[in-house]
Amino acid sequence: MGDKEIISASEISEFAFCNVSWQLDREGAPRSGHSSARMKAGIKSHRKIGRSYRSTGVYIYTILSMLVATVAFILYYVMSLLI
Asked: Which stretches within the chain are classed as H helix?
């Protein structure tokens, strides 16, 4: 699937705001210097937020894994006392 076939949430917002601007962007029309700089800053900001969410997800999975291992150990210990 090519990039032109995928429509992001921000593109839907752009289309709702100004469908002509959205169409020009899809066709590769050049942007003004101001809007181009804002777009680059937005992309950089979104990438930073994405990295933050991914690293948070790693911590959550690690904590959940430790919790599951602890519960399993406690269950094993309790079952060994009962036998």
From this structure: 9-17, 19-26, 33-82
Dihedral through CA 79, CA 61, CA 63, CA 76, nearest 10?
10
Contact 14, 25 (CB under 8 A): yes
CA distances from 12 to 7, 34, 68 (A): 7, 21, 41
Q: Find the Cα–Cα–Cα–Cα dihedral 55, 42, 27, 1, rounded to 10°.
A: 10
- 10-residue mean pLDDT series, the chain (83 residues): 68 84 82 77 83 79 92 95 86
Is this model's pTM higher than 0.70 or not? no
How many CB atoms are located within 10 Å of the residue 31 CB? 14
In Å, how far from its chain's centre is CA 82? 47
**Virtual torsion, Cα 37, 43, 48, 54, nearest 10 deg:** 180
